[in-house]
Structures are given as C-alpha cells and as structure tokens.
C-alpha cells in the first residue's frame, strides 16, 4: 500500500468516527434543549403581557365602580344634565382616569348618553360606528345584572384598536337604591401599555388585529401574514432567523372570538449563547481528535515519517528569498522520489513568483498614491528607513528633513504615545503578530500634531527567523478622531443639565469602587414635584426645574464632586474623601438652598439619601443601594407630610379602637413590597399597596369595640356586623380624594379565591391582584403574631395553613410566591 493511502486509512477511520459521533449527538440533544428553553422564555413573556391586560381591566373596573355607585350618576340617568357632563366628564377627569369612552344605558336598555374622548388630540370626537353597533347589539346583555355589585368587562375592537370595557349597574353611593341603568366605560390599549409591556419583557411588543379563518382552528393576524393557533395551545412561537423569534397569542373579544393578537418579537440571545457553548464543545472534540491524531502519528512514524524527515531537512535549508534558489536531490524510485521532483518543479514556480512580487511592489506604490496613504520601508539589518513622497506630504516634510533610521519615531511621535508605539513595533518584530495597527499622534513640520493610522508588518526573515525587513503604510485620521471626541462628549454628558449622564456614571463608579480615596460618600437625589410642574406649567418649566436642581447640587457639592443625572428626575453625587458627617451636612445645605429657589410658583424640592463607604472591602453597590433606600424613605416621609391629615387621623382612630397596630400595617407592607419585587410590580402599584396595607381594615372604626376586641369567637349576629367593615371602609375611602384609588381594594380584601368570600362573592382573578396578595400576607401576619383571642403560630405552621387554603381562600399562584418570600 502506498504511503498516502496508509495515512488516509488510519486517520480517516479514527477522526470520522470521533468527530461525526460527537457532532451528531451535540446537534440532536444540545440544540433541541436550547430551542425548548427559548420557546419557554417567549411563552413566559406572553403570560406577563396577558397579566398586564388583566391588571388594566381590574384598574378600569375600579374606575367604573366610582361612577356607577354614585348618587349623581343615578340622577343623571334619570334626568341627563349638562352640569354632570361638565363637572365629571371634562378633560381633566377623563385624562386622569384614562377614560376614552363613557356611556349610560337606562333601564329600558336604551343608550341614554355616550361620549368618546381622544387623549392624543385632547378633545371629544365622533363616536365610532363600532362602539354604537356593539352597544346596540349587546344592550340587553350589558344591562343584565345579578345585583348592585355586579361588574362585567371585556375587550372590543374600535377603529382597529383594542378597547377594554367595564360595565356596572347604576345605584346610589350606599348600594341601597334599585338598579337605575348601566354605566359603560372604555379604555384603549395604546402606547402607554405597549411601553410598559416592552419595559417588563425587554422585547418588542405589538397588538395586531385578528379574525377567524375559514378553518375554525386558525386566525388571520394583521393584513398579510396568517398564523395558525390551536385552541388547546392558544399560542404560537415562530423562529424568524438566527437572531429573531416571534411569539403570538390571541386576545378574545366579548363574544369569545379572536379579535386581536399579542405579538412579541425578541432577540434570540439564549439561542446564540447556546450556539457559542456548542462551538466550545466542538472545539473540545477537535482537541481530542488532535490527541488521537498525535497517537496515530506515533504508530505511523516507523512506516511514513522517518523517510520524509531527511527530505524535510533539505527543504528547510532552501532560501526562497534568494534570486537563485537551490534544488533538492532526487534519489530512489518511490513516492518520495516523485515528491522531490514536484518540489523542484515548485521551486521553479517560486522563482517566477518572486519576480512577479517585485513587479507587484511597484504597482503597490501606485495604489498607495491613489488611496492617499504614505508608505515606509525599513531595512532592519542596516537600520535604514525609506519614506515615500506621500508619507512626507502628509506630515509636511521634504526628503532629508527626517532621520532615515528608527530614531525617527522618537522624534515625531507624541510623548504620550511613544512608549506604546515602541512596544507595538517591538511586538511586530516577532512572529506572534501578523500585522500591527497603531493609532498615534505625530508632529508635523508646522509643529502641531496629526493623528495617523500606522499599519506595519515584517515581510522578510533570515534563515534563523530574525526579521530583515518591515514595511508599513500611514493614513491621516485627524478628522475621524475629532468626530470621536465629539461623540464621546455626547456619550458622557446630559444635554439639559450639563451634568454627567447615566453612561458616564456607570463608567466612573467602577473606578470609584476600587479607589483608595476613602471615605467615599454617595448622595442619591430625587426631584419632587416634576410631574406637577410638567402638568401645570408645561414641560419647558419642568426642564427649568431640573436645570435649577442640577445647579443647586453643583453649587453645594463643590468642584470635586462627581454629579450625574441618574434618571429622568434622579441624581447621584459621588464625594471622595468625604465622611458621613460632612455628607449629611451637604444634604442639609442642599435642602436649605432648595427653600430659596423656585421656578414659577414651585419651589425646588429634592428628596435625598446618603451612605458612606469607609472600608475597601465594602461593596460600592451596597452603599448605593443603602443611599437609594434612604432617599426613598425621605421621599415617602415628605409625601406623607404633604398629604391630607385625614389619613393620619383615620389610622390613629383604628389603632386606638382595635388591636390593629401601626407595626401590623408596616409588617404587611414590607412583606408585600418583597413579594411585589418578585412579581415586578410598578412603583405606582407599590405606593397603592402601601396605603392598602395601612388602611385595609379602616372600616373597623365603624364596628363596636366590644365586638372588635372580643376574646372568644363571634356569634352569628356579631359576625354579620363584623363582615360589614369592608363595605364601611370602602365608603370611607371612596369619599376621600387621596384614598379613592384604593377603595375597591378595601372592599374586596376579604373575597375568597373560590368565590365564597364577602361582600361580593368574587372568584379567581375577578378579585384585584393587590387584594389577593394582601389577603395572603394579612393572614400570615395575623397567624404569626399574638392577638387577644389567640396565640400565634410558628412560621412553619402558618405556611402549612396557607398551603391548605391554597385554591380555596387564596390564589394558589400567589401562595407559592408568598411562601418563597416568607422563607427568605
């Protein structure tokens, strides 16, 4: 067998078996698992968007409750008046409540009044035909109410856009009058919802029209594309290409037919990271194959390698750069002999190629001139550098004005770039770098500096692998560098305030975390009243308020402070060599200065919090977090001080009359905040949760103290009285402007997940999310703390009780999340 065939047979058998087997297993198992995880991630994002829609529906139900259970609305359905419309359906009311459609049906199922408001245009518009048709077609169903507490909701299509509707029976504020008609309120799912959804899922989100196809299992989405969605699946994942994946899920209307579809477009980050891991695995396989290859070489050495070595030594002594290249000896009558003949033939071709290369170098000079690039050629053995005319023209020199040796770089390269440049040249002389690219400043004849891009490479070595010749080209990149400087400024500074921006802050905080200039104090600031300024005075005045706040921080913090605009109305001040005492003095000075400055009628007011790092081992992120928490506590205190004193009075009355304590409310709130973080609740929801935690049992101030504090079990009559506290609390909150938004949460906080709660008998997700969450946390806190009528349980016993009531009294999904929070 010939040598070539021996090598092929041995290597192919081993390498093909090893590589093909490993690759097949990788593609079938690893890629399949990656794709499965990727689709699960998209499905989770679809669930989050559906949760947002459900939450928006709950929010609209609260708004419809405010209008339906109201004496003025009851009077309006009987005697429509312009006064009601002007006072309650004006621009501010509709805008604040985010109402896009308001309609009233009388007891005869006739449309008594309808108004459609366009929030984008800020005015009333003609009622869309789809709204009229929907109400006329479904007026009977809309007006069928089980009782005065009934509520219905759904989604309809209006002008190609989804609108959530909520309809309730009209009664008086005490829920005692007979049903006088029906209130229908609509709200579009628009840009604000889309922006919030994209922020939560960190992907592109859109809602497109959908309609049923001829096939009852499919729907049409949008104008062009058709997506088939199975009923039992209700979602579809499509892989567009290697970088994009799209998920679809239908939204059903009030008639349970598909009318819209959620479309989520995401980057395939998980997939691409998995591909990288797969490549790494394949690399390991290749390394293993190389090891096998080495073993094969050992086996084959006796048969193949030794005969080749002698010929290899002759080949290695050939100097290919000489004008006349020596030939190797031809001997024997086997494959090696034929190989020797081929090598000599190749040497002839190399001689011919060398001549062509010399001609090509001449042509290269012409190309460089056309590319506006300068050329230099360094004879390393003689330390002589040749500069072409274009090189000299770029720098403004003439022939003979620059030294023709390597010392030229020391003369013309800027001193700040010299060490780096010389190091790069030195690295280029070795074989570790194929080509080296250096950006450096060089002095021109006029004694100023230009930025040049210097690309160099060793093009010839001697027989001992020592470099003999290096060549390079330069191009003028001065204009490019100026543009980069301008972009760098825009990347690091906030245009409105002149402070550093968030990007620079994230850049510099890493350096500060490693700095030895301790102590380092961090001040977090949040501008209060910016929304009020924007809403009342306009965004131009709001911008002035931000700029004035920035000026105060700069004036008080001093020239050595690093001040950044951290967010829309948030700032962060980094103070090196400043301890906590001095930092607190600065905060106080900022507060005092704020009381002296105002924009229009609004004083500058900044909520502040600070923390100090004394030890290098402390994590700077923990310091920042502590400062931020203190800032939020400060902001919360200021918000409460500006709020109506009725809230404080109500909570004091409750604490004095019953065993409900401030500590109970705060414990509930702290647990809810922890769970809210897991659920990804917004700041607004957390604020609402804070008030609900404090005031959910406020209705108990209307219950006799003997019943409230009775040590034993309540009898049936006492229990009926006690059950009224949620309705009493609802009426108290509904009549207080600062508490109207939590009134429905107070009303429903004793509803049970299986529908056996009170007062309305709501079931499942009909109960608002915050009420479901509060019910679990309130029960846990009551069980784990002493009360006049019972001894507290252990945490483990309370958790077992929650599990027992999961799906009956409590939302099973929230129970699992709450238990995680209780154990942490």
UniProtKB/TrEMBL annotation:
It holds the Pfam family PAS_3. Residues 302-355 form the HAMP domain. InterPro entries: CHASE4, GGDEF_dom, HAMP_dom, HD/PDEase_dom, HD_GYP_dom, Nucleotide_cyclase, PAC, PAS. GO terms for biological process: signal transduction. Residues 518-651 form the GGDEF domain. It comes from the Bacteria. Residues 360-432 form the PAS domain. Signal peptide: none annotated. The chain crosses the membrane at residues 278-300. This is Diguanylate cyclase.
């Amino acid at each position: 067998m010939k040598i070539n065939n021996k090598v092929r047979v041995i290597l192919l058998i081993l390498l093909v078996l090893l590589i093909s087997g490993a690759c097949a297993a990788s593609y079938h198992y690893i890629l399949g698992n990656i794709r499965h995880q990727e689709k699960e991630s998209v499905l989770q994002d679809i669930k989050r968007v559906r949760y947002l829609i459900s939450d928006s529906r709950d929010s609209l139900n609260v708004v419809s409750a405010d209008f339906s259970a109201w004496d003025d609305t009851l009077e309006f359905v009987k005697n429509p008046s312009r006064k009601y419309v002007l006072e309650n359906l004006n621009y501010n009311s509709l805008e604040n409540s985010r109402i896009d459609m308001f309609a009233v049906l009388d007891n005869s199922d006739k449309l008594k009044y309808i108004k459609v408001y366009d929030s984008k245009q800020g005015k009333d518009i003609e009622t869309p035909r789809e709204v009229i048709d929907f109400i006329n077609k479904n007026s009977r169903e809309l007006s069928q109410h089980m009782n005065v507490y009934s509520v219905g909701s759904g989604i309809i299509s209006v002008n190609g856009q989804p609108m959530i509707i909520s309809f309730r029976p009209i009664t008086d504020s005490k829920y005692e009058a007979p049903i006088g008609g029906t209130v229908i309120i609509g709200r579009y799912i628009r840009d604000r919802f889309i922006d919030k959804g994209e922020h939560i899922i960190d992907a592109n989100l859109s809602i497109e029209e959908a309609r049923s196809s001829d096939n009852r299992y499919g729907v049409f989405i949008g104008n062009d594309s058709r997506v088939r969605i199975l009923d039992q699946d209700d979602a579809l994942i499509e892989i567009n290409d290697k970088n994009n994946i799209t998920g679809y899920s239908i939204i059903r209307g009030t008639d349970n037919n598909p009318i819209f579809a959620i479309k989520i477009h995401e980057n395939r980050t998980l997939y691409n990271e998995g591909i990288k891991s797969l490549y790494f695995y394949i690399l390991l396989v290749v390394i293993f194959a190389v090891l096998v290859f080495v073993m094969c070489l050992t086996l084959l050495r006796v048969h193949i390698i030794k005969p080749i070595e002698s010929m290899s030594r002759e080949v290695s002594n050939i100097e290919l750069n000489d004008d006349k290249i020596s030939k190797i000896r031809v001997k024997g009558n086997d494959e090696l002999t034929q190989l020797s003949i081929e090598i000599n033939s190749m040497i002839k071709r190399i001689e011919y190629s060398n001549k062509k290369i010399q001609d090509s170098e001449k042509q290269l000079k012409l190309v460089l001139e056309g590319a506006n690039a300068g050329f230099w050629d360094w004879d390393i053995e003689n330390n002589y550098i040749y500069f072409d005319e274009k090189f000299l023209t770029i720098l403004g020199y003439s022939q003979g004005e620059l030294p023709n040796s390597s010392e030229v770089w020391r003369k013309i390269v800027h001193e700040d770039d010299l060490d780096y440049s010389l190091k790069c040249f030195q690295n280029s002389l070795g074989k570790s770098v194929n080509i080296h690219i250096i950006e450096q400043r060089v002095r021109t004849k006029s004694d100023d500096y230009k930025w040049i891009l210097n690309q160099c490479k060793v093009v010839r070595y001697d027989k001992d692998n020592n470099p003999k010749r290096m060549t390079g080209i330069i191009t003028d990149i001065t204009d490019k560098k100026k543009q980069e400087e301008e972009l760098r400024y825009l990347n690091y500074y906030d245009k409105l305030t002149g402070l550093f921006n968030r990007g620079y802050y994230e850049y510099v905080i890493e350096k500060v975390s490693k700095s030895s200039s301790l102590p380092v104090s961090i001040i977090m600031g949040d501008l209060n009243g910016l929304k009020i300024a924007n809403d009342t005075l306009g965004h131009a005045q709001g911008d002035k308020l931000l700029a004035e706040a920035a000026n105060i921080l700069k004036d008080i913090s001093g020239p050595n402070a690093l001040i950044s605009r951290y967010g829309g109305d948030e700032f962060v001040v980094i103070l090196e060599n400043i301890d906590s005492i001095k930092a607190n003095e600065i905060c106080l000075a900022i507060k005092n200065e704020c009381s002296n400055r105002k924009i229009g009628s609004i004083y500058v007011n900044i909520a502040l919090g600070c923390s100090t790092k004394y030890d290098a081992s402390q994590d700077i992120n923990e310091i920042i977090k502590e400062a931020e928490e203190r800032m939020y506590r400060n902001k919360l205190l200021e918000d409460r001080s500006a709020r109506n004193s009725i809230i404080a009075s109500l909570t004091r009355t409750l604490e004095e009359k019953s065993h409900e304590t401030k500590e109970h409310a705060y414990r509930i709130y702290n647990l809810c905040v922890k769970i809210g973080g897991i659920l990804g609740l917004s700041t607004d929801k957390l604020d609402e949760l804070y008030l609900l935690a404090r005031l959910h049992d406020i209705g108990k101030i209307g219950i006799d103290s003997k019943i409230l504090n009775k040590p034993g079990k309540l009898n049936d009559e006492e229990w009926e009285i006690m059950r009224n506290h949620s309705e009493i609390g609802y009426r108290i909150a509904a009549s207080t402007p600062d508490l109207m938004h939590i009134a429905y949460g107070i009303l429903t906080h004793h509803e049970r997940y299986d529908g056996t709660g009170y007062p309305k008998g709501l079931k499942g997700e009909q109960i608002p999310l915050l009420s479901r969450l509060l019910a679990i946390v309130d029960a846990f806190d009551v069980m784990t703390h002493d009360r006049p009528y019972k001894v507290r349980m252990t945490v483990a016993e309370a958790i077992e009780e929650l599990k027992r009531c999961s799906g009956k009294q409590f939302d099973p999904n929230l129970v699992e999340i709450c238990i995680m929070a209780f154990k942490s």
